[in-house]
Amino acid sequence: MYLQLKRLDKKFGHLYAVHNFSIDIEEGELVALLGPSGCGKTTTLRMVGGFLKPDNGHIILEGDDITALPPEKRPTATVFQSYALFPHMTVLENVIYGLKFRKIPREKACTMGMEMLEKVGLPLSGSKTIGQLSGGEQQRVALARALVTRPKVLLLDEPLSNLDAKLRVRMRREICQIQSSLGITTLYVTHDQEEALALSHRIVVMEKGQIIQIGPPQDIYRRAENSFVADFIGRSNIITLKGGEKVAIHPEDLSFSYEKGILSGYISGRQFKGAITTYFVDVSGQTIEVDILSRKDRQRSDGEKVEISFNKGSEMPLTRD
Amino acid sequence: MAVKRNSKLCGASFDAPFCLYLFLAVNVFIFILWPTLAVLKESVFVHGVFSLEHYRDLFTINQFLVRNSLFVGLWTTFFALFIGLCCALYVTHSKNKGKKVVLAVLLLSLISPPFVSSLAYIMLFGRRGLVTWKLLGFHWSPYGPHGVILIESISFATIAAFLIIAVLRGVDRSLEQASLDLGASRWHTLWHITLPLAKPGIITAALIVFIRSLSDFGTPMFIGGNYNVLATQAYMTAIGSYDFPKASAISTLLLIPAFIVFLLYRKILGKVPMFSPKTASVDEDLLGLPLWVNCIVFIGTWGFVFFELMKYGTIFCGAFTKTWGVNFSFTLQHIKILKLAKLSSLIRSIQYSVIAALTAGIMGVLLAWFLGRKNRPMARVIDFIADLPFILPGPFFGIAYLLAFNWLPEFFLGTGFLVITNCIYRQLTLGIKSGISVLNQINTELEDAVKDQGGNDIYVLKDVILPLLKSTFLVSFINTFTFTMTTIGGIIFLITPYTKVATVEMFDAIQQGDIGVGSVMASVIIIVVMIINAAFSYVLLHKGKNSSKKVRRNHVPSIEATR
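Output (structure tokens, whole complex):
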């Protein structure tokens, strides 16, 4: 195992911010820590970066225990949520800042910095000041600064949260490409499930300081083990089947049928969302969401009685609720 | 393993920054807390025996002193607050023209040495005053409580104005707009929205003016006639009759209101964004004031400006007038006297000021970092103690130094060591406060980034804290420089014949009735301070690219608190 987090605990006051957190990460893997705000994902990241000392547990990198190392001695590099670019230095000075601690002569550092800026898509902007950059450009500089020191682990703390929706999608792809071309082991903190699904090799879903589920994106989405994960990763309907089994079903796995379905109810609302249309169906007091491709929507009206069915196998048994 | 843990312990807690912090903390204790305690102790021991005799005297035989002080203090607070509020509303809320002139005059009077007003008052309205005697030709006595109240009101109106301007600028303009939008009149908006929001600042201004008035001994001394107050008595018992226990008791009495103010000040100012006003846009369309309020504000403001301009005009003329009141012919004789005899005092003033300003600037930045960022032991205690001298009456802090350090070898007194440290520690808190407020606006991730990249605490200081707190250093430098150039209340107790500074020369000249030399001294001090302030403001406004706007806002409210 390349990076191991073993039974990490961190308390703030009486509350566990992170409790009993363990994961083994392969070299070159991109792991997303996903969860709502306050779930302990950033705390975990900061423990790996060395900014917080865990109360218990160990952080092992390539077989060495680095738990006690201060951040400046750790072979990790962070892209901070605020980017934390030094406002009084130029872009290039920012990028090569860490190289002086690695005894790399300035000449060579500048060349390395320029190369890295090119790699993140910002060639020829080394002499600009930070204030002249847009949000997306600052993000790239922060990434370049983290990568130029060739860290063993790259830590990204909600790196895209300050960007607008369109740019976020583009940067997502670029981060993916850079990460896989460098093959750098990466921990990625986000509260955006779509982002986590799109970029990562594995997702760690967290709630209240604890790991709820770990798995590849498809598994997390398709085989949520409890209602929290099912609900947090996309939208889910929690349905109790005949026989008392509780399952979660994504709205897009449901459809309206002519014959008797698994559930029946009355339309209580309709939302057009572009490619899909969401119907809200009142099933004996519970609201069930059903996604229909807009092209195939028959524009049902409120109060209409509908039968709902789903394909066998698309339901997720909530075994850990 | 044992060895390893040991070395880690040393490495983590006894590194260079920690030693530096320890050094600064010990200094704060020695130069602030200890002298303060020394005065308290001195005041309750008579010939080595515990006794409250001096305090009893103050409430029996010398009760009139307390009464006089309160009388002058309360009226001064009232008038100063009125003028200050007029100026503040004029600058922030009115649509009138000439705001820059008003601000410039306010700034000018802020950086003037004390009792310039008294000097001008004597020259204009004194027994042989230009206006009363020469122009109007009548005899009246300007000396007495009315003169003291008038002069103190005008002198302290400036600080009140700046404090109120600071809060008024911090008031969210959209709240006022909402009030008008909902149908309230301008008057109603001003009275029920604007002023209540500015209340903390107005209260602070009132309290600060009140204790300034209590601790001012120059004005009552020059124009009080035989009207004595606590501060003049403290000065005369200490300097005149060397009765330190009694002087200590008097200044401790001055300390009580000051201490109440201090506690309120920490409480209120903790909540008011004094040093970092919100970024409410000032350039927006102003709403203006109701007509009749605007009339009062207009008259109050321009009356003040007129008086101030007349004051400076008089002083500058006085510098070139043969014998004011008798012979109004032009002369360079006073300037010659300055060159011959008083130049060394002026140079000494500048030297002391530069040393004090540099030290206070560096200490302010470092302590801001230690207290604002890192969880250092005793940080709250140090912060509290460092705040103290800012509010302590000048004479109290002066006597405190005399009592605490009178055992020091002649060398320290002869080199002005005590004068300089006295000024540094009185101004230290401003640097710390402004530094902390700048740090609060900087994301802590910036410091984490240095560590993440491999730099230790030293690099955090060198690459992030120092460059970003450059403005703090400059503000602290100007404040302390201006203060040291113009102060007298605290340092007059510490001056020896070898360490006479410009303000003391001026004080002596006025006391001896030498108006010409007094005017020259005053003019020269004003010019020097003005040049330095202008130069540093220029650097602050034009070099601090990214944060110049922020700094400008910080700069104005922080100087005003100087005296």
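Residues 504 and 548 of chain B are 36 Å apart (CA to CA).
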